[in-house]
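GDSL esterase/lipase
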Amino acid sequence: MACKLVILFFFVNLLMQIPKVRATVPAIIVFGDSTVDPGNNNQVSTVLKSNFEPYGRDYYGGQPTGRFSNGRIATDFISEALRIKPAIPAYLDPKYDIEDFATGVSFASAGTGYDNATSDVLSVIPFWKELEYYKEYQNKLRKHLGKDEANQRFSESLHLISIGTNDFLENYYIFPTRSSEYSVDEYQSFLIGIASNFIRELYKLGARKVVIGGLPPMGCLPLERTTNMFFGSDCIDEYNDVAKDFNKKLQGAVTELKQELGGIHLVMSSPYDKLMEMIRNPSHFGFEDAETACCGTGFFEMSYLCDNMNPFTCSDANKYVFWDAFHPTEKTNAILADYVVKTTLAEFQ
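Tokens:
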């Protein structure tokens, strides 16, 4: 009898611990660009959309949602891995309400950047506006959960930031405005200043768990390889070097902010090395092609150029690292998310 009581006590105690584990991160709150936009751009007057086939063909029900992928994006997989929910909704999606957003929401907008000038290029949501949406969300959640519970949720939720590639590839290297004002080194510092202030604002609003992503090897995106076609379609080393330098500076800023902001749990996540590993050795991950994309010819198609009328789109996206000329496939997103969860995010679990 005593043995049964001991076993019963053990299982009751174990069950009591489960909610505590899950409550470690009750919600994921996302800011950024197309890497983490689940469909906010559907509600914006911009040409940069993906709410049509073949986007989303491997998503639940085969439905295009506005995610720039054939299926789910990295933050969806992170949310699932943390046992929250399998997909994070877009804040501007009218299908969802504050009850849905209470356990995770994304304010991200494809095509945006740290720099306001970057969001102007394709008329998308500027980074500062994402913060305004977050403030609006906070007020809604306080009404929904009550002030004390909502404030506790803000402090325990994981605030994830993924942005920056567009500032260089969509803005700095294409238009002369910023490149005439700043050297690359100065522009990197300019952007990191914006990133640091954004984190300070999140901190003032009650965020205590923050993850900020570094830049990927952006010189290896299929679109950039295409522009380098006359030189063998190799990765553009200059762009990759910029990404690596930026990541070093961002890590330095993270270190300084951790000293400045008492009680903040701030880490940097870098997709650079893992994605480069996939690009250099695709067969190791079960891929067949890391140079071109699945959609269309794989060289330049993105957004409306990657539509259902394109006869060249591949039949199996799992063979490709990239879905369109700028964005990873669902399989790549899953691998990157798994890596981030097991490394950077391990301390949050």
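The chain has 13 helices and seven strands.
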